[in-house]
């Protein structure tokens, strides 16, 4: 692992004998994740979790500013039976996707049992004995089921205060036996419901772009589905690190389920705005690939998760994406007044850059493909 860039951005260590690469390697080799550190009783953050001070102060500032504006909440009730309601919902999705890139949905048809079951299953896995979890710990990106702390540590400046259980559910889902026993059934059920909801949402999003309802499904947007099941342990020094650093999602659309703890924020009009947990709701956000094919009409907004004294916080992010093609702005959406903003992008190249290219001064991966 190459981590020389990590050193520059961290506060100097007393005595300065601290070898960050060695510490990170030891952390990774422990296969016990952030939860392992918490279980061991650490009271101070290991330096590789500490974010630069300016980011810490922006955390403090955002905690002070009470949020007057909130991301839209869209009620999907009667979506399949009431055409007038449907039109209204499409309009709400269009507006939310243009201005925020984020919204929440309620009455989406996925039951509380399925949602709670998934949260419990994910919690169950992360709270399994080390012997069980370590068998899944790997950075092999070809595997369909993995457990890792900090999947993108090689590209970021500091580690996130979270551990992640990952499933690639489509195309070609794992054999049930490959899933951890404690969350096997719940994950299979949950992902079937998420695929259905994904279809429903992508039809609405197609219409919100003025396209045929099946356009984005036929395009392949729902062919690939990955679940990232995060566990954010309670943090002894929450003002010195982040649960998830600011990022945009590398997919078409994300369906996020968060538990009651909160901490998710969206960057909107130069401020971090909290996304309050609503029982039974999903948070939906536009990813980079939808921003690309909609020619920038729909926004892939930056978001992050604060660390917290309280925890664990559990969330499940479901990513709809496929990288087996080249795509650019959808031709039907372009005109003399709306010329293409992006090149034709080989999505494999995009995702490779997203995963491996080091952070550089605010330029997002998608920005690099602008015309
Ligand atoms: C993600 C993400 C937010 C959360 O997985 O990309 O932004 O609340 N997760 O865990
Ligand atoms: Ni995200």
The CATH architecture comes to Sandwich
Order of helices and strands: HHHHEHEHHEEHHEEEEEEHEEEEH
Hetero groups in this structure are:
N-oxalylglycine, nickel (II) ion
The overall pLDDT, averaged over residues, is 91
CATH superfamily grouping: B-lactam Antibiotic, Isopenicillin N Synthase, Chain
Share of residues in helices:
25-40%
Q: Proportion of β residues?
A: 15-25%
Rg over alpha carbons: 20 Å
* CATH fold-level topology: Jelly Rolls
* Number of separate helices: 11
Quickly give the structural class. alpha+beta
> How many strands in all?
14
Regions with little confidence, pLDDT below 50 for 5+ residues: 1-15
End-to-end gap: 33 Å
Question: What labels would you give this structure?
Answer:
32% helix; 371 residues; binds nickel (II) ion; alpha+beta; single chain; disordered N terminus; Jelly Rolls; binds N-oxalylglycine; four-stranded antiparallel β-sheet; 11 helices
Your description of this structure?
The protein has 371 residues and is an alpha+beta fold. It has a single domain, classed as B-lactam Antibiotic, Isopenicillin N Synthase, Chain (Jelly Rolls), CATH 2.60.120. 32% of the residues lie in helices and 19% in strands. It contains 11 helices and 14 strands. Strands 1-2-10-7-12-5-4-3 form an 8-stranded mixed beta sheet. Strands 6-11-8-9 form a 4-stranded antiparallel beta sheet, with no helix packed on it. It has a two-stranded antiparallel ribbon with strand order 13-14. Helix 5 packs across helix 8 and helix 6 crosses helix 8. The longest helix has 25 residues. The protein is globular, with a radius of gyration of 20 Å. It binds N-oxalylglycine (OGA) and nickel (II) ion (NI). The site of nickel (II) ion (NI) has 4 residues, from loops.
